[in-house]
Design brief:
Helix content: 25-40%
Bound molecules: zinc ion
Distance between the termini: 34 Å
Order of helices and strands: EHEEEEEHEHEEHEHEEH
Number of strands: 12
CATH topology of the largest domain: Rossmann fold
Shape: globular
Strand content: 25-35%
Oligomer: single chain
CATH architecture of the largest domain: 3-Layer(aba) Sandwich
Structural class: alpha/beta
């Protein structure tokens, strides 16, 4: 069994403030360690379930957060950003048996996490895919769907896990915390580590290659920008359509084209 883990930081247990996810700030170190530990727990759960190969994408900010020597030797780690449209799931393809997301967070415009955002926090107000408000989970989940890789596990804040349950009822989730205004209510980090390992193991034992999401025949991406100037610029992308001063729509049959628009315009 070959599994893919995409790891972000804003949904790691206890993370509450931007200073805690910014390598230039002193608060970062303890949460860098915690992110690493939660990814290690997911890897251990995968190995418990019989995984032979694990590919981890460090998908937060610089893409250089996870302490690689702490990962089990079966894992390989993608650090940095290649510039490929698959972004947070770079190198994902049909050879994987399962996709998992660790430390993910609720979407832009949601009250579910003080750090809620979708891709770029300063630039994007909302993203919709086929009319549904999209988080980074949904945006990258469709890449899994394109390659028929089932979404086996997601950990993060409560609101994100609610979205996962709606979109992907077969996916196991683990709630690390709940956002309340500008605060978080988190479980104990040690409990997260134990539970992530067990939930991942159970999920992978019953994962079925045929349970990947069904891919829609066509996609309509609608992006609402913070600034009309950014929307104007994005509307110049070939095939993009300006629908209001702040909103641009882009339609494609191939989901790769959607992710390509995201790469250049989000
Ligand atoms: Zn992040």
């Amino acid at each position: 069994m070959k599994v893919y883990i995409s790891a972000d930081m804003e949904g790691i247990t206890g993370v509450t403030h931007w200073n805690e996810v910014d390598p230039k700030k002193p608060d970062y170190a303890q949460f860098q360690k915690r992110m690493t530990e939660e990814v290690v727990s997911a890897c251990r759960g995968a190995l418990d379930a019989g995984a032979e190969k694990i590919l981890v994408k460090d998908a937060h900010y610089t893409g250089r957060n996870i302490l690689s020597a702490d990962l089990p030797e079966e894992a390989e780690l993608i650090r940095g950003w290649s510039g490929h449209p698959y972004s947070m799931v770079q190198e994902l393809d049909g050879t994987f048996d399962a996709l998992m997301m660790v430390g993910y967070h609720s979407r832009a415009g949601s009250g579910g996490n003080p750090l809620a955002h979708t891709m770029s926090s300063g630039k994007i107000e909302r993203i919709f895919i086929n009319g549904r408000e999209a988080s980074e989970f949904l945006l990258h989940g469709y890449v899994g769907a394109k390659h028929q890789v089932p979404m086996a596990f997601v950990s993060g804040d409560r609101e994100l896990c609610r979205e996962v349950a709606e979109v992907s009822p077969g996916t196991a989730t683990f709630i690390t915390m709940e956002g309340v205004g500008d605060s978080t209510v988190s479980i104990h980090p040690e409990k997260s580590l134990r539970s992530i390992r067990k939930t991942v193991c159970d999920a992978l034992k019953s994962v079925d290659k045929n349970s990947a999401w069904q891919l829609p025949d066509e996609f309509e991406l609608s992006v609402r920008y913070v600034k009309p100037t950014a929307a104007y610029r994005a509307s110049q992308y070939p095939g993009a359509e300006s629908v209001s001063p702040k909103t641009v729509k882009y339609r494609a049959k191939d989901y790769d084209d959607i992710m390509r628009f995201v790469l250049f315009c989000v």
